[in-house]
Structure formats: C-alpha cells, structure tokens
Write a structure and sequence with these properties.
CATH superfamily of the largest domain: Histidine kinase-like ATPase, C-terminal domain
Keywords: Membrane, Transmembrane, Transmembrane helix
Organism: Sphingobacterium allocomposti
Protein name: GHKL domain-containing protein
Number of helices: 10
Number of strands: 7
Radius of gyration: 37 Å
Largest sheet: 5 strands, mixed
Pfam families: His_kinase (PF06580)
GO molecular function: phosphorelay sensor kinase activity
Length: 345
C-alpha cells in the first residue's frame, strides 16, 4: 500500500524522535534488568538513543533524494554498516567523557547485540527513506504525466473548436451569398444573426462545459440563421425533459449534428422538413437525440468529409475517455443521431 505523505519533514522528525524515546526506554529497561538490584545510571541509554538519533538524521539528510539502481544493495548495506559503527563509536566516546566505568563495562558486554540491533534499526530507516523517495518520485512523475496529458487534451479540444467554427462559418457565408441577389433583406438579417451567433461562440471559448439551456439558446440562434434561408420549409421542435434542464454539456457539441440534419434533410429536397431534438436524463446520463427525414436517393450523393461527426466523436473521447457516446442509425427514411453526456455532478 502506498501512503501519501502530506509533510515529509514533519514525519521525519516524529519518526526520529519516536525511535529515540523507544530506544532509550528499552535500553534502560534492559540495563536495569541485567544489573538489578544494583542502582543504574541513565547515561548509557541516553547516549545510545542520541547516537542512533544522530545517525537517523544523517540518513534523512544524505539520502533525501537517493534512489538506488538495480544491484546496488551492497552499497546500501555498506552505508548501513558505516552508520552502525558511527553510532557505536559515538556511544563509546561519550561514555568515556562521563567516566562512567560501570556503564562502559556493561556497554562492552552487550556490544555485539547492540551492534546488531543498531544495524537492523538503521537498515530499516534507510529502507523506509528509500521507499519515501520512490513514492515521491512516483507521485511527481504521475503529476507531470497528468498535467502533460491535460495540456495536450485541452490543446486538441481547442483545435477542434477552432476547426468547427470556420466549418460552420463557410457554410453560412455561402448561404448569405446565395440570398444577396434574390433576398437582400433576408441576407442582411442573416448577417446580423451570424454576428450574434459568433459573438456567443467566442464568449464560450474558455469553458469546456456549459449549462444545457445555454447550449439550447445557442442552437436556436443557429437555427434562426438557417430558417432565413429555408423559410417555412424548416421546422424544429425541442422536447426537453424537466429533470434535464440543469445538466451540463460540452460547448457546441450538438450544432454539427443539427447541421448534418439540415444538410441531408433540406438540401436538394422539396417540401416541408421537421427536425426534432429530444433531450432526456436517466441514471446520470443525458441523452440528446436528433431525428430528421432524408431522401435515400440524395443521401449517397450528399456524403461529405464527415468532419462534424468525427469532431464530436473525438471531443467526447477526450472529455470522457469513452467511444460509445455517439450513435447514428437510419430506418424508414429517418436518420437518428444520439449523443450521451455523462453527468458526474
């Protein structure tokens, strides 16, 4: 199990002084047990615990960023041996300074056991320190990877948005050009509506998800632009479930589908065309279904580059890491496309 450390320095101090206190009490207890009923002084336990504490701090300071490579276990063992000799040497040095012959004599008696205990204790501290460093390296690499993927994903989403806007703009300008000669007033009206539509689009550039009702208002503005060209031939009906009104969707995710519906439902087709947009929410999944009629004879000849559907599929994958959120079907001259938007909030 990997523990996430909130403050490594604090944990180092707590661990080191916990080792110091436990080492002192255990050493003092063993000294009292071996020498009873004689009176014992706490010099040896105090000096031994302080020596091991100094060595622990040396480990944390010198191996703070150390990550051993493969087959470097001998190096770790040698470091531990050097620190063990240092801890024992410090104890002998300070005991000599206090002229405590009894404590010094007892220390020499238990020296082999003390050496082994110090070695194992310092080896555990070294291993724990290395595990901390490995965890920090793992967390840092993971953070950098996630940040890199996020930047790349945002850049690709932005690129898709920038491609989508000219795609719609060129189509709208062609419609305006077609109306200038025959219906100049409607061409002027369509120009104003296009200006409002693009202004609303630019305001949404900094948001990946927007409220559903804002997206619907944007779609209606787009449909108003198309109705200038097609007039009474185009009818659109929105069915929005009340529970779905507070949902959020990716900005401009539905507009390419409406554009396809108008393209295959109205271009080169005579008569009235009705496009329906059904929006429902169930089990935290928002479903947006667009249906439109199409002429089977015209459908094959009107196939384009598929940029609209491809961009939607790609955006949904980048945002939700799923490839099953866009579905299309054709039955009885009715083309149906459905977008599913997970609602995590």
């Amino acid at each position: 199990m990997i523990f996430k450390l909130t403050s490594k320095n604090r944990l180092i101090h707590v661990t080191t002084w916990t080792i110091c206190i436990l080492y002192f009490f255990i050493s003092y207890f063993l000294l009292w047990w071996d020498c009873r009923p004689k009176h014992v002084t706490p010099y040896e336990p105090i000096i031994g615990s302080l020596s091991i504490t100094i060595c622990c701090y040396l480990i944390y300071s010198t191996l703070q960023y150390y990550l051993p490579r493969k087959n470097q276990y001998l190096k770790i063992t040698l470091i531990c041996l050097v620190l063990t000799v240092m801890s024992v040497g410090l104890s002998i040095f300070f005991l000599n300074q206090f002229f405590d012959d009894f404590s010094l004599a007892h220390f020499y008696e238990v020296l082999p056991y003390r050496f082994i205990i110090n070695f194992l204790l310092l080896l555990c501290v070294i291993i724990i320190n290395i595990f901390w460093n490995i965890q920090e390296e793992y967390e840092e690499n993971k953070r950098r990877k996630d940040e890199s993927e996020r930047i790349l994903r945002d850049a690709e989403l932005y690129n898709l948005r920038q491609q989508l806007q000219p795609h719609f703009l060129f189509n709208s300008l062609n419609s305006i050009i077609a109306l200038i000669g025959t219906k100049p007033d409607e061409a002027r009206n369509m120009t104003f509506q296009l200006s409002d539509f693009l202004r609303g689009t630019m305001r949404k550039d900094d948001k990946q998800l927007i409220p559903l009702m804002d997206e619907i208002a944007h779609l209606k503005l787009y449909l108003d632009i198309e109705k200038v060209r097609f007039g009474h031939r185009l009818t659109t009906i929105f069915h929005v479930q009340e529970e779905a009104e507070r949902s959020k969707v990716p900005s401009m995710i539905v507009q390419p589908l409406l554009e396809n519906a108008i393209k295959f439902g109205l271009y080169n087709v005579i008569g009235h065309v009705e496009i329906t947009i059904d929006i429902t929410l169930s089990n935290h999944m928002l479903s947006i279904t667009i249906t439109n009629p199409f002429d089977t004879d015209q459908f094959e000849t009107k196939k384009g580059t598929g940029f609209g559907l491809t961009s939607i599929q790609r955006r949904l994958f980048l945002l939700y890491s799923r490839t099953d959120l866009l579905e299309t079907s054709m039955k009885d001259n009715i083309f149906t496309s459905t977008i599913k938007i997970p609602q995590y909030d």
